[in-house]
Design goal:
heterodimer; A: mainly alpha; MetI-like fold; B: alpha+beta; Rossmann fold; five-stranded antiparallel beta sheet; 20 strands
Chain lengths: 302, 366
């Protein structure tokens, strides 16, 4: 069939006869990796399990507290969503909290990604005395629990009169040991020495090389680090609730003050949680594309 | 354009027990195409990187023109380099890759555009200027790497095995293109390769290195005709020259019971002290002799190449046990009259085609 069809085409197009066997070969080789129905079922189930809590948050946010206490619990959303959100916003300054959280998390993310990439590049590719020892020191700080540093940190912040100011939350987390280590590991693998040498021969200074060559290569890892850092900063509760008050809270601090009273108002708490989660979802959607990199393909033939 | 001078340049890597490049003395003329060749680890790439400024010079100096550049950073040396794996910036288009150095140097935009377009025309890259490296074939990437060097209009081109990532056919094609381009631009070029065919076909002169030490630097013809030592003799030419050692006897060297004639004066000098002499003869300078004359060898493998046939044969141990080991010998013969496997063939060396070496110093005896 194939040969019959391809024979008259040969003069017209070269692609015709070549394409058929290639496609066939692809199908055969693909068998090993092609997803079967079982894969879809499992993936579907996993997705369902992952999404369900978010869905139930939305459901709970649209009910009254009484309805939520019923058996069986409700599974379909109701019309009370905006009422509950309104009540949540009245009870705590959620609008301000979201703005604060966006500011804090963005500053921390930008700072961490920038500092970590710079330091990671230096540790991965620059030759300097004490490179190994310094890296060990940086990684070693990961073993010190945060709780240990909280009291001295609070004393410091109090002396600077920064309590209840956002910089109290931003400043201590502007660079993370994990970020430095993560970027170092990525760059030592993904960034070929020849690329840096080519830039040097082309006349680029180290800083210029960093911006023009290292950052574009590091972008996928920077996106991953940005996402992790943003999430961690957004969800951070322990230090913010010490450094801030409910007058100038981040989202997590504001949520902690929600629905309090004789009986916890679950519906209001869920409504607050729902609007507190939305910005994070936006970040996921924006940065998710970045992570699918593949930018290094074709730079260096290895 | 400029000359390049290595003046006792030495590079010692930290924690190494011997220098990677040892007292390299080399003068490269203005516009010359010099090839550095040698087996892997011989220091050829290190030498090139020292010239590029990517590797420190521990002793001696390197000059480009009259200027001592030993301590100058790469950007102040007015050189351009083509890397083995091309090292193209993955996120930049072909155009941006080629113009990057000019952009850093602060060259005006339209001037960059003009020079990139010019280089692209020479290299036949005009249709690919807006593509990223990953959308290019190996040969195209190689040409972009060349283009990146050309647009800078440097005093010296440095090329570090630029063809080793291409397939065999493209390599031969590109080889001639690079050589022609270099002649046309007349820019002093230092080219590193481990492939002696590339070295012989491209270079005005070829410098052979081994273990960081320069063995010989001469024109391809001279390297082939008059190798300075047994290493160069064995490295240049394909298949390699046969090099064997045997006891000196009256009138020649005794090999497998027969005497291979060696000129009296050379024999005397080579054999002084040890009573032995090392001789070299190329596969193509051997001819068959009637039985009773010449050196007998036993054929192990016959390679038919169409235009030629190569016999891989063993030179037997001497009858009285005086010559020590058997040696492998390669012989080029007419494909139609090639001997069969297992057959004994008698060989003699064509006149003036025998190379004589001192068995101790391995140096050529003239």
């Amino acid at each position: 069939m194939t040969t019959l069809a391809s024979a008259p085409q040969e003069t017209v197009s070269v692609a015709g006869p070549v394409a058929t066997p290639r496609r066939r070969r692809g199908r055969r080789a693909g068998k090993v990796t092609a997803a079967g129905p079982l894969t879809y079922v499992l993936l579907g189930l996993t997705a369902l399990v992952s999404v369900f809590p978010l869905y139930w948050t939305a459901v709970a946010a649209s009910k009254t507290n009484a309805e939520l206490a019923g058996t069986p619990p409700p599974f379909l959303p109701d019309a009370d969503l905006f009422t509950n959100i309104g009540r949540a916003m009245e009870e705590a300054p959620i609008g301000l909290a979201i703005v604060n959280s966006v500011v804090v998390s963005s500053c921390i993310t930008v700072g961490t990604v920038l500092c970590s990439t710079l330091a990671g590049f230096a540790f991965a590719k620059l030759r300097f005395r004490g490179n190994g020892a310094l890296l060990a020191l940086v990684v070693g700080t990961m073993m010190v629990p945060t709780q240990l540093a909280i009291i001295p940190l609070f004393i410091l912040i109090a002396e600077l009169q920064w309590v209840d100011h956002l910089q109290a939350v931003v400043l201590p987390t502007l660079v993370s040991a994990f970020g430095v280590f993560f970027m170092r590991q990525f760059l030592s693998q993904a960034l070929p020495d020849e690329l840096l040498e080519a830039a040097r021969v082309d006349g680029a200074s180290t800083l210029r090389t960093f911006w023009s060559v290292v950052v574009p290569v590091a972008r996928p890892a920077m996106a991953v680090l940005a996402m992790l850092t943003f999430l961690t900063a957004w969800n951070d509760f322990f230090w913010p609730i010490i450094a801030l008050t409910t007058d100038n809270p981040t989202v997590q601090v504001a949520l902690a003050g929600l629905g309090g009273g004789y009986v916890p108002d679950t519906a209001v708490i869920m409504a607050g949680t729902l609007i507190g989660t939305l910005p994070v979802l936006v970040v996921f959607v924006v940065l998710g594309k970045q992570i699918v990199g593949g930018i290094m393909q074709g730079a260096v033939k290895g | 354009m400029a000359t390049v001078t290595f003046d006792s340049a030495t590079r010692m890597y930290p924690k190494a027990d011997r220098p990677a490049v040892d007292n390299l003395d080399l003068e490269i003329g203005d516009g010359e195409f010099l090839v550095l060749v040698g087996p892997s680890g011989c220091g050829k790439s290190t030498s090139l990187r020292m010239l590029a400024g990517l590797e420190e010079i521990d002793a001696g100096s390197i000059r480009i023109g009259d200027r001592d550049v030993s301590d100058a950073p790469p950007k102040d040396r007015d050189i351009a380099m083509v890397f083995q794996n091309y090292a193209l910036y993955p996120h930049m288009t072909v155009e941006q890759n080629m113009g990057f150095a000019l952009k850093i140097a602060g060259v005006a935009k339209d001037e960059i555009g003009r020079r990139v377009a010019e280089a692209a025309k020479i290299l036949d890259l005009e249709d690919y200027l807006l593509r990223r490296p990953k959308a290019l074939s190996g040969g195209q990437r190689q040409r972009v790497a060349m283009g990146r060097a050309i647009v800078r209009n440097p005093q010296v081109f440095l090329m570090d095995e630029p063809l080793s990532n291409l397939d065999a056919k493209l390599r031969v094609q590109t080889r001639t293109q690079i050589a022609a381009l270099q002649r046309r631009l007349a820019v002093t070029t230092v080219y590193v390769t481990h492939d002696q065919v590339e070295a012989m076909t491209m270079g005005d002169r070829v410098a052979v290195l081994r273990d960081g030490v320069l063995q010989q630097c001469d024109t391809p013809g001279a390297l082939y005709e008059r190798p300075a030592n047994t290493f160069v003799a064995g490295f240049i030419g394909s298949p390699a020259m046969n090099v064997v050692t045997g006891p000196a006897v009256d009138g020649g060297v005794r090999l497998a019971g027969a005497v291979l004639p060696v000129p009296r004066e050379k024999l005397a000098r080579a054999a002084a002290g040890t009573g032995r002499v090392t001789v070299g003869f190329r596969p193509e300078s051997l001819e068959t002799a009637p039985p009773g004359e010449g050196v007998p060898v036993v054929v192990n493998v016959v390679e038919q190449l169409g235009s030629d046939a190569f016999l891989y044969a063993t030179l037997g141990a001497d009858d009285d046990g005086d010559v020590l080991h058997t040696a492998d010998v390669v012989v080029r013969t007419e494909p139609r009259t090639a001997a069969a496997v297992g057959e004994t063939v008698h060989l003699r060396v064509r006149e003036d085609c025998l190379h004589v070496f001192d068995p101790v110093t391995q140096l050529r005896v003239d």
